[in-house]
Each structure stands twice: as C-alpha cells, then as structure tokens.
Write a structure and sequence with these properties.
This protein has a single domain, classed as CalX-beta domain (Immunoglobulin-like), CATH 2.60.40. It is mainly β. The radius of gyration is 20 Å and the shape is elongated. Strands 2-1-3-4 form a 4-stranded antiparallel β-sheet, with no helix packed on it. It contains no helices and 4 strands.
Amino acid sequence: MFATTLDGEAIANDDYIPFSGILDFRQGEKSKDIEIKIIDDDDWEPDEDFFVQLYDPSTRQPLGGQDTQTKVTIIDDDKPGQLCFRDVSGVKV
C-alpha cells in the first residue's frame, strides 16, 4: 500500500513534514504506523487539518470502493492570553 499526506488548512513544510512511502504489510499484519512530524511554533493559529491518503502501490490510484483517506487535526496549543483588570472603573478597551 502507498501512503501520502495531502494539504488541507495545514500546509506541508509549514505546519507538518509531509510523508510519502510504501507501507509493506507482511503475512498476518493488519496495521502499520507512520510518523508525521508536526512543526510547532509559538504563533497562534486556528486548528488546522491535513489528510493521509492510501493508494494502490502499482497504480497510485485510491483503492476502489474503500474509505482510504483520514483527516488529521493539528490542535493549536498557543492560545492567546487573557488580559484582566482588577478595577474596571474608568477603563475603556
């Protein structure tokens, strides 16, 4: 099976390191792990998605009649801070 990443809101080499390669299943194996590095920065962004698509390795076409794409969500952990005032009298924001 051939697997590759596809951009959504998340962009390869900006938000994650793209993956592309053959997944070689041996006799009796039912799953494979792939590692996709998420690029972490200190900038606040909304949560962003990208996709992993599986293909037939000989044709590079999606496997017929099967759900072969999954969505991966990068959850932003750089939420903006909060600003609070003890005394709000006379404060305009």
